[in-house]
Amino acid sequence: MQVDFIKTGDRRYSVRVRRGDRPALIMDPAPGFDPDLPHDMVHFVAEGVLGLKGGVFGQIAAGGNAGGFRIEAADGGRAAKAHRRAVRKQAARGEKLAKEQGREGALSELAAFLFDVAWRCRSRPESPAQQAPLGEAELVRASLGAAERARLDAAAPRVFRHFDRLSEAWRALPSGEALALEWPSLERVG
Asked: How far apart are the C-alpha atoms of 101 and 176, rounded to whole Å?
């Protein structure tokens, strides 16, 4: 599965997911633009490194839409009958997967938040904006079980290496261009 993170403007981005023989999915605009590492890229890395199948990208790989993605119309225009049927089928599959995700869906959100805060504090410790989430991160971390904390601690160095690599590529990406990544390897495409 190929995931394109597209810089669509000065403070905007979108995400397109190409899934082989299934219709492509799009989220435009995507939430949480950041000049260093957008929100959905944080999820992409955290879920890939942790091997989460119930997170955003695991759900999409399993045929869902993770709630926020929609089928991209091939012609960019009004959907035909077959397209509407595909949209309904995709939504039903997404709802089913969301109900089945269990703890992995929550862990995806918690891990993305914790990895993001820790990486930003490590890479920009002088920024006062990084101090505010520290207290919240401590509370979130305390809500995890010992095994989950150990799993996140073990994954952190690998997550941060990916964040560093992808952040550099994202910052250099011109507006209108895409950073194409493969799921679940997290490697660049092309």
From this structure: 34
Q: Give first-to-last CA distance, the chain, whole Å.
A: 14
Residue 38 lies in a domain: yes
In a domain, 50, yes or no: yes
Domain contains 189:
no
Mean pLDDT for all residues in the chain: 83
pLDDT > 90: percent of the chain: 54
Q: How far is the C-alpha of 100 from the C-alpha of 8, rounded, in Å? A: 33
Tens of pLDDT, residue by residue over 25-73, are 999 999 999 999 999 999 999 999 999 988 889 989 988 877 788 888 7
Sign, CA torsion 40/41/46/49: positive
- For residue 25, what are the domain limits? 2-182
What backbone phi and psi angles, to 5 degrees, belong to 20? 65, -115
Say which residues have a Cβ less than 8 Å from residue 44's Cβ, sequence separation at least 6. 3, 5, 56, 57, 181, 183, 186
